[in-house]
Automatic annotation (TrEMBL):
Keyword Glycoprotein attributed: yes
GO MF annotation: an example: lysophospholipid:sodium symporter activity
Organism ancestry: Eukaryota, Metazoa, Chordata, Craniata, Vertebrata
Gene Ontology CC entries for this record: endoplasmic reticulum membrane; plasma membrane
Annotated GO biological process: carbohydrate transport; lipid transport across blood-brain barrier; lysophospholipid translocation
Source species of the chain: Mugilogobius chulae
Protein's name according to its UniProt entry: Uncharacterized protein
TM regions (residue ranges): 110-131, 211-234, 265-291, 297-319, 326-344, 350-372, 393-416, 436-457
Reactions catalysed: a 1-acyl-sn-glycero-3-phosphoethanolamine(in) + Na(+)(in) = a 1-acyl-sn-glycero-3-phosphoethanolamine(out) + Na(+)(out); a 1-acyl-sn-glycero-3-phosphocholine(in) + Na(+)(in) = a 1-acyl-sn-glycero-3-phosphocholine(out) + Na(+)(out); 1-(4Z,7Z,10Z,13Z,16Z,19Z-docosahexaenoyl)-sn-glycero-3-phosphocholine(in) + Na(+)(in) = 1-(4Z,7Z,10Z,13Z,16Z,19Z-docosahexaenoyl)-sn-glycero-3-phosphocholine(out) + Na(+)(out); 1-(9Z-octadecenoyl)-sn-glycero-3-phosphocholine(in) + Na(+)(in) = 1-(9Z-octadecenoyl)-sn-glycero-3-phosphocholine(out) + Na(+)(out)
Superkingdom: Eukaryota
SUPFAM superfamilies reported in the protein's UniProt record: MFS general substrate transporter
The family this protein is said to belong to: Belongs to the major facilitator superfamily.
Amino acid sequence: MAKGEGAEQYAAGLLSVKPIVNAEVKAKKTRLRNGLSVWNKLCYAIGGAPYQITGSALGFFLQIYLLDVALLDPFHASVILFVGRAWDAVTDPTVGFLVSRSRWTGIGRMMPWILLSTPFAVLTYFLIWYVPPFEQGKVIWYLVFYCLSSQCRRVFTHDGGSVGKCSRHSHPRQIVGGATPDCSTDPDVLIATNSSHVNATRTSLKDTKQAYMFASGVICAIYVLCAVILFLGVKEHKDNGQKKAPLTFQRGLWLVMSHSPYVKLVISFLFTSLAFMLIEGNFALFITYALGHRNDFQNLLLVIMLSGTLTIPFWQWFLTRFGKKTAVYIGNSWALPFMILIVSTQSNLVISYLVSVAAGVSVAASFLLPWSMLPDVVDDFKLKNPDVHGHEAIFYSFYVFFLKFASGVSLGVSTLSLKFAGYVTGGCSQPESVSLTLKMLICPVPLVLIILGLLIFKTYPIDEETRKCNQKLMQEILDSESDSESESSALGSSV
């Protein structure tokens, strides 16, 4: 009798496994669907802000700072800008590869890199905006600290973008501006007059140096604050679901570069991004010397960034309503009529503000859409190569590689063009040839690059229908893997 009762109890226990399994599976799927809390997402987004803030400040102000504040020759400035961005581009995939191979610690795999890189990133970034008290070796000073800052900030971005695994892209676009010398006459005239004018100019330059250092100090403080918020608000979760070894770097590179949609998307955005980088890098000089709005250029740049930030929700709605390909065509071509307007009419402050608003709208689209479309390419690759694992980092790293390399080319070539045009370092006015060169770099060259990029984009094969189909298939795969993992876990705990 006792034996029979034991058998019945054992059978009842087996029968009760299924309800337990179903309950575990249901709870697991509910947690996955709910995802992270709003607080986690907010902290994750704040963690992406330091790189965007420092990148925007460097993109808009470093060129004019090296020329008019550090008083470097345009050729030396072009070398610093190109080599710094090229170094960033080359080290980006390497940093991502090494970080992804790090061991797991008590606070995660990525978080130690964030904590270790933040002090060095802050220090090297601050020293970029410090003018050393010596002339010999000044080029080496800026080149070394620009490269070191780029690498430290890149470590932070790789890790901040991986911690939490709650998003595939980030949107923050902010900037803290600096100042330039407030002068309105030619330096030769100043030298020819009495010493009080010369002393006033020196005082203005000294104040400008202090303004740049103050602005960089504010950015450094924001950088540290964002790193602390990221550390306290986002916890890294170990991925136990991957059973197979990740790709080797060489094989992963070959597979990614053989994926046609990725190649077409990257080449297309390479041209359009290069266009907007030319505008970004030369806009401050264009406003100051071609349009003569020396006292308003900080406000105009602020309008661009505010316009871009405020229109990101609009572009998010637009691409979900009309499709991503339509958003690319409209977003990248939106600012073109306004750029033609600003270079073909007489200098007018109202028109300049109007163009700044329109440029901000296009800047928002040009920076948002690539990061919105890269996940579609990754999903398409995963469906066509289901046995390949660990490929996501290569997709993003090499896109950033090409983007940084294009940025270096744009800044180096444009600064070198100014040298050939006769740019006067530290001058309060420039020759007409410099004004003409700036107009070419602001409108005709970006116009051609954007048109080429959009023509290449027409061959991009993932339309809205394909994207939704791939998204549905990927969701089914994720649900299947989740069900299998939950059932295995529940069965193990029940036994």
